[in-house]
């Protein structure tokens, strides 16, 4: 088996649609740290299409959102020098769809932190297929505190 993803290491029981290892109908994004970036490879299935040959825009948004959230959580963990990432949620994100994303090729997700505070990370990301960037994203991800519904999800 390949090296464990951030999701498998820190949230193996998560049922998140995008990145939860325990969601049988989810996307199962596997985010891996590579230097200052976090990278994932994912292969669409026919039911992820918007129309024949192209991945649905909502699926693209979910891929970029979840992968970027883990990038932000990993960064905040490293920045704080702790051994577990804080539970983070999406405060906002935007996606630019640059061209149709082929549904018959492996997709590569890349994300990196562009600014951060103690509890917040701003992440930029890209989604590529066949060597071409098909979509980009930018989001703000915030560590939640006790009392927030997502606080104990990891």
Report on this model:
By secondary structure, the chain is of the alpha+beta class. The protein has 2 helices and 8 strands. The strands form 2 sheets. The protein has a 6-stranded antiparallel beta sheet with strand order 1-2-6-7-8-5, covered by helices on one side. A hairpin with a 2-residue loop joins strand 7 and strand 8. It is globular. The chain starts with 5 loop residues before the first helix and ends in an 11-residue tail after the last strand. The model has no long low-confidence stretch (mean pLDDT 96).
SSE string, helix = H, strand = E? Answer: HEEEEHEEEE
Largest sheet: 6 strands, antiparallel
Strand content: 35-45%
Distance between the termini: 23 Å
Counting helices, strands and paired strands, the structural category is alpha+beta
Q: How helical, in percent, are the residues?
A: 10-25%
Strand arrangement within the widest β-sheet reads 1-2-6-7-8-5
Question: For the residues shown, what is the average pLDDT?
Answer: 96
Principal-axes shape call: globular
Work out the radius of gyration. Answer: 15 Å
Find the count of extended strands (DSSP E, 2+ residues): 8
Low-confidence stretches: none
Number of H/I helices: 2
Nutshell version of this structure?
With 154 residues, the chain is α+β, with helices and mostly antiparallel strands.
Features:
globular, alpha+beta, two-stranded antiparallel ribbon, 6-stranded antiparallel beta sheet, 154 residues
